[in-house]
Design goal:
Length: about 300
């Protein structure tokens, strides 16, 4: 590949087929793109045609959604082999997967399901991550989940669980700030406390996305990790807080459903880019209201 594989501490977006032509025609000023690995595991066809051209101009991150890192069974070796082939083909700067399970007895669920936080689960997840890292040849970033239930069996907090997995497997972390907001709201905890305790020194990438708001049967607020709208102001504030603690990190705008036009998505990335640039230049992040005014003026 002509372009360096290194992912800069800039904003990127999730690359979708609907935006291929806009990216190739406009060559937007973005730091990088991320793709879901499973969408490119075929041998050829239009997806690879476009991704090859875009990869010549931008670094790339591979984000896995189907390995079932938290599953009880060993990882699918055929799936791992396809992931390895994809990594060798596109030389990604970052590789990531989810803290979740999605398979059972050869049945694949179209969801990322939660895990109990126990020592036994730490060992299983770490073993799977070590295997993935060995085969794919990259350090893997593990993403914190969006959760809607907790387990009575859990013996540690999510953050302590992630720290234990990092120590045992040598993996890194992907901080999904929207997932923090979703989980904290649903569990009745403070998202700010989660960000303040998160081991940001292990974070290689940050995700920002949109969530839907519903009411449960008791009238309590329930947030859904929908990835179908702009980033909420509360999530931007949490992102500001993470930058203040950990500094600038590669930051992705996730928008996977009800896709907007390219300019709307690019506008979200520019908003993140502004925060990152201010952090890198001055070490300070402007208040949210000031960021919104500046972004509107620039747009």
């Amino acid at each position: 590949m002509a372009r360096s594989s290194t992912i800069p501490a800039r904003a990127g977006v999730g690359l979708k087929a609907q935006h291929y032509e806009a990216v190739l025609d406009g060559r937007p000023d973005l730091g990088w793109f991320e793709v879901h690995a499973e969408n490119y595991m075929g041998a050829g066809g239009p997806p690879h045609h476009y991704l090859t051209r875009i990869r010549r101009d931008y670094p790339l991150s591979l984000h896995g959604v189907g390995l079932s890192i938290g599953g009880a069974a060993p990882l699918d070796e055929a799936h791992l082999a396809r992931f390895k082939d994809l990594a060798e083909r596109y030389e990604p700067g970052l590789v990531s997967e989810h803290l979740a399970w999605s398979t059972h007895n050869d049945i694949y669920f179209n969801d990322l399901l939660p895990l109990p936080y126990t020592n036994e689960t730490v060992v299983r997840v770490s073993d799977h991550l070590e295997r993935m890292q060995d085969v794919v040849g990259h350090r893997v970033l593990l993403e914190n989940p969006s959760t809607y239930v907790t387990f009575r069996e859990s013996t540690m907090s999510e953050i302590d669980f992630l720290k234990a997995v990092v120590k045992l497997s040598g993996c890194g972390l992907l901080l999904d700030v929207n997932n923090v907001m979703v989980s904290a709201t649903n569990q009745g905890t403070a998202p700010e406390a989660y960000i303040d305790s998160f081991p940001l020194e292990h974070v290689g990438e940050i995700h920002l996305g949109g969530h839907a708001r519903e009411d449960d049967d008791q009238g309590n607020t329930l947030l859904i990790d929908a990835h179908d709208r702009a980033v909420d102001d509360a999530v931007w504030r949490l992102y500001d807080r993470s930058l203040a603690r950990g500094g600038a990190k590669p930051t992705l705008i996730e928008w996977d459903n009800d896709l907007p036009d390219w300019e709307t998505l690019y506008s979200e990335a520019r908003a993140a880019e502004q925060l990152l640039e201010v952090r890198k230049i001055s070490g300070r992040v402007p208040p949210l209201a000031k960021r919104r005014r500046a972004h509107v003026a620039a747009g």
